[in-house]
Amino acid sequence: MTNNLLLHRAAVAAGAILVATAEFAILHSAAGVDLAAGTGNATRQITVAAVVVAAAVAALAGWALLALLERLTNRARVWWTSIAVAALLLSLLAGPPSGVGGEAKAALALLHLSVGVVLILGLSRPRPEGLNR
Asked: What is the spatial distance between Cα 69 and Cα 59, in angstroms, rounded to a whole number?
């Protein structure tokens, strides 16, 4: 992997984390949305740390999968984009519905979508010429 590509992908990952953090701050602090999720009989508050960790895990998992696919196939971007879109759809089905109240559900959906879109559009950028699989 060239330094330019490595820097680009690191910037995309950092961008996804920054977008999620900024959205959390706006939604939680400025808009007053109580970000809480229900699991069974328990309710847990969603903190900025949880948002940062979730975005970082998604970014690193997406980056790792793309790097692996680039070693295995010339159609890595097509495969990766398909898998990433499916993962985003699954995360939207699993995460936001657990929100406590309509505002929390909408906020969680926005967080999932924002991180997913940044990663999908940013990481799927074509490899520079001259890189072999």
From this structure: 15
**Residue ranges in the chain modelled with pLDDT below 50:** 130-133
**Does 75 reside within a domain?**
yes
Query: Which token pair is 13?
Result: 């990952």
Is 97 within the bounds of a domain? yes
Q: What is the pLDDT of residues 25-37, one digit of tens each?
A: 999 988 888 899 9
* Domains contained in the chain, number: 1
Task: Give residue 50's domain range.
Answer: 3-123
Residue the block writes with tokens 């680009």: 8
Predicted TM-score (pTM) of this structure: 0.88
Nearest to 127 by CA among 49, 67, 40, 37: 67
